Automatic annotation (TrEMBL):
The gene is F13A1. Its EC number is 2.3.2.13. The active site is at residues 319, 378, 401. It comes from Acipenser oxyrinchus oxyrinchus. Ca(2+) binds at residues 441, 443, 490, 495. This is protein-glutamine gamma-glutamyltransferase. It catalyses: L-glutaminyl-[protein] + L-lysyl-[protein] = [protein]-L-lysyl-N(6)-5-L-glutamyl-[protein] + NH4(+).
């Protein structure tokens, strides 16, 4: 009791402002059905005045509003419209409307303590001329007792769920409809409106970046790109409300919810749970006992709904999960968004444009002293918007990264940063452009460490980081290479000027005098390696001189997370040989599966660092090579002719390729417009054994739909499959 008495009172707005900060879409204050002018002396006589009998907001999918506003795909019974574009409602009065003596308005309110000056209370009157930055309304038709209105929300309206009333003015006061949640109206961003800050003038791109609810995420390694399907599910039941809850939980002021720059920045912090109990808990540990492994998810819907229903962060995610959930958030609210993958992405480099690799005096890799890492790939988002907060010309695609890496203004978030500004080295513009510039432009600097502890740079690789930036092609399940949007080709004058500009803004680059090249080294694997198989790592050396060269080569093989962080070293080998004048020689390093297969982590990636020296110290040779092991796919077979609301089935098949049991195996199956998420568990799958799972469902949406399946267990991750289904009427 004593502790409770000493506890300070909760914070309050009293004495600081007349009302608390309005930061919740869920808050509301019901307006009175009758609001008198002054103090009435008795009950007013309202029989002779206009009375509202019915309000029809034309909210069904097959009615004009949702079709015209491209919101008919939302599994939501309420009216959903986009700002800057007219929608219709029909009002039925007790008698014909007379514009000479009858006066009424439609009121839109959002949050608690709504105010006209804040844009949270909007009264709209008939024939209210549309002015830029304001709402408009006109009467389309007045026939008998029914009046059809066309209402246009301002192109910079707050985005969220508005309450709607119809109010009639009488000499005694205002008479309005009762509070009815069925008349709530969601207002979203509008890429189809040229006055909206997210305006996108390409119809195919709008269909892809706003309306497509299934996508592809790229991962793996730059020379061996893998794909996995992902269900964004932005139109699924409850997802829109979950996205509004995310902003409420962030306590984002309603007045800021008209600006996509502010929304994307807040959301990039809220998608991860690092410092604000956001949506997804990040984990790269390989231990996922108390949640779902990042590799096991098939889509964003379960994650968002679980978070909105419980208020508790969902376990677990990694970069592609953060990016995919964020993409669902963007598309759901109407902001064009896409998931982007940067291959060989520099991380934790403090914006100094270099990743340091430490070698000993003999040229052998020193893992204990090499702290910087290069992710095999890293996923982030791009969202399309104007940027009135920075100079003209830097609007368009903006990088926003929800993976918790570094803090920005005290929170784990990143962006939005202009892609155009990053390409040209103009990293002085907000937000977090230096960090993103370094992710795709950092140099790999090799240092020789002397016995006395001093270090000297011996080689710089300017082409390893940011080798390729990919996203999904518009309208097709194919790769779109957008590297040229982020950087100029290495060695060009434009690239030099961009780097010089970045250096001018305090980014630092290491300059060294490189040793002469007398021997070229090339590292490769002849073909894709299936997980659990032996293979050869091929090293090719070419003497570029007319003198004999003596080489000492060190090969280190490491089990690494896809973040480049080493879990364990599984092999270390040295080679010593000579090269005759102008000779080319190939050395094969045999890699046995038994040395790596039981040590793999979820991305099944092997990382080789090959270093060495020529003629004691004439030249230091360095190379890094990532070998992503090939994972088997799930097979999804359809049975029957898909028809709307008629039962059909699909069968998922899988064969265990490993020479050991797979234990505690989970399979998830999901398809928007086809079925909700289904999960099936298998306690054990013996080597070379197959499983077959048949699931029945009834399609609820017409057209091309996709089913995605994913298998996950401790020994095998990233096993997935997808099939396309055309649902007939």
């Amino acid at each position: 009791m004593a502790d409770k008495e000493r506890r300070p009172p909760p914070p309050t707005h009293v004495g600081r402002s007349n009302i608390p900060s309005i930061s919740s879409n869920a808050e509301e204050e019901a307006l009175p059905e009758f609001e008198p002018f002054g103090i009435p002396r008795g009950p007013p006589n309202l029989k002779d005045f206009l009375d509202i009998w019915d309000v029809n907001i034309l909210k069904n999918r097959d009615e004009i509003n949702k079709k015209e506003h491209h919101t008919d795909l939302y599994d939501n019974v309420k009216l959903i419209v986009r700002r800057g574009q007219p929608f219709q409602i029909k009002l039925t009065f007790n008698r014909p409307y007379n514009p000479e003596k009858d006066q009424f308005c439609v009121e839109f309110l959002i949050g608690g303590s709504p105010q006209v000056s804040k844009g949270t209370y909007i009264p709209v009157f008939p024939n209210q001329e549309q002015v830029k930055g304001e709402w408009g309304c006109r009467i389309l038709q007045s026939e008998d007792n029914v009046v059809t209105l066309s209402i246009t929300p301002a192109a910079d309206s707050i985005v969220g769920k508005f309450r709607m009333y119809v109010a009639v003015m009488t000499p005694y006061g205002i008479r309005r409809t009762a509070r009815n949640p069925e008349r709530d109206v969601y207002i979203l961003f509008n890429p189809w409106c040229e006055d909206d800050s997210v305006s996108l003038d390409n119809e195919a791109e709008r269909n892809e970046y706003v309306l497509n609810d299934v996508g592809t995420i790229y991962y793996g390694e730059a020379s061996n790109v893998e794909t996995r399907p992902w269900i964004f599910g932005q139109f699924e039941y409850g997802v829109l409300d979950a996205c509004l809850y995310v902003m409420d939980n962030a306590q984002m002021p309603l007045t800021g919810r008209k600006d996509p720059v502010k929304i994307s920045r807040i959301a990039s912090a809220m998608v991860n749970s690092k410092d604000d109990d956001g949506i997804v808990v990040g984990s790269w540990s390989g231990e996922y006992l108390y949640g779902v492994a990042p590799t096991a998810w098939t889509g964003s819907v379960d994650i968002l709904l679980n978070y909105a229903n419980s208020g508790v962060p969902v376990c677990y995610g990694q970069c592609w999960v953060f990016a995919a959930v964020f993409n669902t958030f963007l598309r759901c609210l109407g902001i064009p968004g896409r998931v982007v993958t940067n291959f060989f992405s520099a991380h934790d480099n403090d914006g100094n444009l270099k990743i340091d690799v430490i070698l000993d005096e003999n040229g052998k890799f020193m893992p204990s002293l090499t702290k910087d890492s290069i992710w095999n790939y890293h996923c982030w988002n791009e969202c399309y918007m104007s940027r009135p907060d920075i100079p003209v010309g830097f609007g368009g695609w903006q990088v926003v990264d929800a993976t918790p890496q570094e803090t920005s203004d005290g929170m784990y978030r990143c962006g939005p940063a202009s892609v155009k500004a990053i390409k040209h080295g103009q990293i002085c513009f907000k937000y977090d452009a230096p960090f993103i510039f370094a992710e795709i432009n950092s140099d790999v600097v090799y240092w020789k460490r002397m016995r006395d502890g001093t270090q000297q740079p011996i080689k710089v690789n300017k082409q390893h980081v940011g080798q390729m930036v990919l996203t999904k092609e518009v309208g097709r399940d194919e790769i779109k290479n957008i590297t040229d949007l982020y950087k100029f080709p290495e060695g060009t004058e434009e690239e030099r000027l961009a780097v010089d500009a970045a250096v001018m803004y305090n980014l630092k680059r290491t300059q060294i005098t490189e040793q002469p090249t007398v021997v070229d080294m090339d590292v490769r694997v002849q073909e894709s390696v299936l997980i659990g198989n032996d293979f050869n790592l091929t090293l090719e050396f070419k003497n570029r001189t007319g003198q004999q060269q003596t080489l000492v080569i060190y090969v280190n093989g490491n089990i690494v997370f896809y973040t480049g962080v080493t879990k364990t070293e599984f092999m270390s080998k040295s080679l010593e040989f000579t090269l005759g004048p102008w000779e080319t020689k190939t050395e094969n390093v045999f890699v046995e599966s038994k040395k790596y297969v039981n040590k793999l982590v979820e991305q099944a990636t092997l990382h080789f660092i090959i270093t060495g020296r020529v003629n004691d110290d004439t030249q230091i040779l360095t190379a890094q090579h990532v070998v992503p092991l090939q994972i088997p796919r799930l097979t999804i077979k359809m049975e029957g002719v898909p028809k709307l609301n008629e039962e059909m089935s699909v069968t998922v098949e899988f064969t265990n390729p490993l020479k050991k049991n797979l234990e505690d195996v989970s399979i998830r199956l999901e398809g928007p417009g086809l079925m909700k998420t289904k999960v099936k568990m298998y306690s054990i799958i013996p080597p070379n054994s197959s499983l077959t799972w048949t699931e029945y469902f009834r399609p609820s949406k017409l057209g091309v739909r996709k089913l995605v399946a994913c298998l996950d267990c401790a020994a095998l991750h990233q096993v997935h499959g997808v099939t396309e289904i055309y649902v007939n009427p």
